[in-house]
Amino acid sequence: MLIGIGGPSRSGKSTLANLLVTHFRRNGKKAIIFHQDDFVFPETQIPKIKDKTDWESPLSIDHDLLLEVVSDFKERFDVVIIEGFFAFHDDRLNAIYDKRIFVKISKRTFIIRKAMDSRWGYIPTWYIDHIWKSYLKMGKPSTIKTDYLEASGEDEFDMKKILGYLER
């Protein structure tokens, strides 16, 4: 099974992917996660916005390499999970997903979580706004023409609902 998990920055995509991989492994399945962040181009090759690297551009991700790696691993694992801001952006990935989960949070929750995120140092307010606008433009599931499950990333995930979706 190939599962795509998408949603805005700080919505809980990685957390959900980790919960799922743990669940599948506990149930005897070979499961692995691929984080789109691990497939970014070198910073010098990524577009800029106001002299800042635009990590929120789909041009920041090496979609060809991700697709190549996933194609190889899906033959060797029972469950392969791809999670990322642009999980639903590449039509080639959308064509091979078995299941899609969109993790939704409010703009307020996003702003609060992003303000607490100190991994990258200070993030200007205009860039936080840019991240949200990029998500609205390129990260929402309206770009996919197939079914998906919407999961709330506001609090704890409803794992019963999510696992029910994955089992059907």
From TrEMBL:
Superkingdom of origin: Bacteria
InterPro entries: P-loop_NTPase (IPR027417)
PANTHER family: URIDINE KINASE
Protein name in the entry: Phosphoribulokinase/uridine kinase domain-containing protein
